[in-house]
Amino acid sequence: MMNNAIVARGLRVRRGRSTVIDGLDLEVPRGAIIGLLGPSGSGKTTLMRAVVGVQIIAGGSVMVLDRKAGSAPLRRRVGYMTQAASIYEDLSVRANLRYFARVQGAPPADVDRVLERTDLVGQADRLARTLSGGQANRVSLAAAMLGSPELLVLDEPTVGLDPVLRADLWEIFRRLADDGTTLLVSSHVMDEATRCDRLLLMREGAIIADTTPDELLRSTGTASAEEAFLRIIERDSAGPGSRTRTKPARHLLSRRGGRR
Q1: How far is CA 21 from each of CA 57, 107, 146, 186, 237, rounded to the nearest angstrom?
Q2: How far apart are CA 15 and CA 55, in angstroms?
Q3: For residues 258 and 121, what is the distance between their CA atoms, to the nearest angstrom?
Q4: pLDDT band at residue 1, thresholds of 50, 70 and 90?
Q5: Which of 235, 233, 232, 214 is nearest to 223 (CA)?
Q6: Phi and psi of 60, rounded to 5°?
Q7: CA angle, residues 35, 162, 184, in degrees to nearest 5
Q8: Can you tell me whether residue 68 is helix, strand or coil?
Q9: Separation between Cα atoms, residue 256 and residue 204, nearest integer Å
Q10: Radius of gyration for the alpha carbons in the chain, expressed in angstroms and rounded
């Protein structure tokens, strides 16, 4: 498990009387950008909440950095960015980060580091309510980066942003991965798949493919990630005999009801 940032075994999550995730097995390696892609409602946020340890699970287990998800020792080793910008609008950018640094036990000097890494130095003294959507997302990302976590879990970090702002954020993600951070990034924007090292494609609470961007296009004979994902959905809908099967290194493919 030492080479894996995340290991899930038989993960089951229920919401009311409905089973959202049923028997999911998963391994995510360290030091890479892992894209968790799929349409809205596919279970991406539920899986990420289970990884962070804030989701009640009905069965199975999730280990993160060789510890049980949500355990106290992980609080400084895992950063979590939710879909909505989690900042205080009546505080400046710097004051927000100072507050979160105190909460997380990060050194005060870390505020300047994350401001620089997220290109927010010029906005440090602006009130959060005056920021654009892209800038607010960067502040949330900066807060998640405090303390230099080994794993960053980013839930739809580019949602609602224009292509230029999305590209800027992905450049930041790449720099973090190059420095050894593992990033689990969810998105329903299929063209972001090409920016990841590996891809997990989700549908209806299950991972229907685990592959690389190049392998995704090659195995489906398509020219774009969106076309490829639609092709995989068609195959998956056709039944167990037609489901997409890839052979990724260090990953375990899964489907409802058990391991592939």
Answers
A1: 9, 38, 31, 16, 17
A2: 10
A3: 48
A4: low
A5: 214
A6: 80, -165
A7: 15
A8: strand
A9: 10
A10: 18
Instruction: Look up residue 84 and give its amino acid.
Output: A
Residue of 8, 67, 71, 32 lying closest to 185 (CA atoms): 32
How far is Cα 10 from Cα 61, in angstroms, rounded to an integer? 7
DSSP string, 104-115: HT--TTHHHHHH
pLDDT tens digit sequence for 151-202: 999 999 988 888 888 888 999 999 999 999 999 999 888 888 989 999 999 9
Main-chain phi, psi angles of 209, to 5 degrees: -160, 145
Kindly tell me the sign of the dihedral angle through the C-alpha atoms of 235, 258, 151, 131.
positive
Q: What pLDDT, on a 0 to 100 scale, did the predictor assign at position 243?
A: 41
| Neighbouring residues of 41: CB distance < 8 A, sequence distance ≥ 6 | none
Measured CA to CA, the distance from residue 191 to residue 46 in angstroms comes to 22
Tell me which residue of 174, 80, 93 sits closest to 131, measured CA to CA.
93
Q: Is 223 exposed, middle or buried (0-12, 13-18, 19+ CB in 10 A)?
A: exposed
Long-range contacts of 117-120 (CB under 8 A, 24+ apart): 117/142, 117/145, 117/172, 117/175, 117/176, 118/142, 118/145, 118/172, 119/168, 119/172, 120/93
What are the residues facing 34 on neighbouring strands?
A: 184, 198
Q: What is the DSSP string of 200-213?
A: EEEETTEEEEEE-H
Domain range summary for the chain, segments of one domain joined by + = 4-77+149-259, 85-147
User: At the topology level of CATH, where does 4-77+149-259 sit?
Assistant: Rossmann fold (3.40.50)
Alpha-carbon distances of 247 from 24, 86, 147, rounded to whole Å: 17, 38, 35
